[in-house]
């Protein structure tokens, strides 16, 4: 099977989505990028997770051309493509999109997920941002491609692995990582911290963000050149 490695990795990551409770029905998708080959594998559109096989994963280049596969790729493929074009040389190898409920609640409220504590800071270096509203022209034009563009615009100069998630306003989260499994892990962490934030804000709507010194301590003990957490 051509591109077997990224197809297998892509399948494994996609199958984790329903197991983690991150998706309902056929919502959501994972892609995996091979920077050397300049191609990525992604879940086919609308196929139930229990029926997916590695050979079903569709392989495309960064111009959006299908280079291998018999099925139609996810409708979100152009968004994934824009993110790999922007961040594929900065360590991003996998992108996950879900409609996980707590993260979507923040996206629908057009509100960033505030960094209220250390669980959040262990994974995301500050509040998880929400994009601006997409314009009518963007939605009526190349919608999924423009979705990728507003994510890149939202991240700006922030290193993508410092903030491996963005909430697309009125839509939901896009999350990324250095592998399929790591990207799904971050998608799961995002849903956990969104749930925690909703509960914290319901108890105390004026809850203050964690101080920068605490956020920095927790984030950089797990990430970067001076990380010391774990084996």
Sheet having the most strands: 7 strands, antiparallel
Tell me the fraction of residues in β-strands, as a range: 5-15%
Unreliable stretches covering 5 or more consecutive residues: none
Strand order, biggest sheet? 4-3-2-1-5-7-6
Report how far the terminal alpha carbons are from each other.
Answer: 35 Å
Portion in helices? 25-40%
Please identify which CATH superfamily we are dealing with: Class II aldolase/adducin N-terminal domain
Beta strands, count:
7
CATH topology: L-fuculose-1-phosphate Aldolase
For the CA atoms, what is the radius of gyration? 17 Å
Reported CATH architecture: 3-Layer(aba) Sandwich
Q: What would you call the shape? A: globular
Give the helix/strand layout.
Elements: H1 4-19, E1 29-34, E2 39-42, E3 58-61, E4 66-68, H2 77-87, E5 94-97, H3 101-108, H4 118-121, H5 136-140, H6 143-155, E6 165-168, E7 172-177, H7 180-203, H8 212-220
Antiparallel strand pairs: 1-2, 1-5, 2-3, 3-4, 5-7, 6-7
Helix pairs in contact: 1-7, 2-6, 3-7
């Amino acid at each position: 099977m051509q591109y077997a490695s990224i197809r297998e990795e892509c399948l494994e990551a996609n199958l984790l989505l329903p197991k983690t409770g991150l998706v309902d029905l056929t919502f959501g998708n994972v892609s995996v990028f091979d920077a050397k080959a300049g191609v990525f594998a992604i879940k086919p559109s609308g196929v139930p997770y229990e029926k997916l096989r590695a050979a079903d994963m569709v392989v495309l280049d960064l111009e959006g051309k299908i280079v291998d596969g018999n099925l139609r790729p996810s409708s979100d493929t152009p968004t994934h493509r824009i993110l790999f074009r922007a961040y594929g040389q900065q360590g991003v190898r996998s992108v996950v999109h879900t409609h996980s409920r707590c993260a979507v609640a923040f996206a629908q409220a057009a509100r960033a997920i505030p960094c209220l504590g250390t669980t959040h800071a262990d994974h995301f270096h500050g509040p998880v941002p929400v994009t601006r509203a997409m314009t009518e022209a963007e939605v009526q034009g190349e919608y999924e491609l423009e979705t990728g563009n507003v994510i890149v615009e939202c991240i700006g100069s922030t290193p993508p692995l410092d903030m491996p998630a963005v909430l697309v306003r009125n839509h939901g989260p896009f999350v990324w990582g250095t592998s399929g499994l790591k990207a799904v892990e971050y998608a799961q962490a995002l849903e956990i911290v969104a749930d925690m934030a909703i509960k914290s804000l319901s108890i105390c709507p004026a809850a203050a963000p964690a101080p920068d010194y605490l956020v920095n301590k927790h984030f950089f003990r797990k990430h970067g050149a001076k990380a010391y957490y774990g084996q």
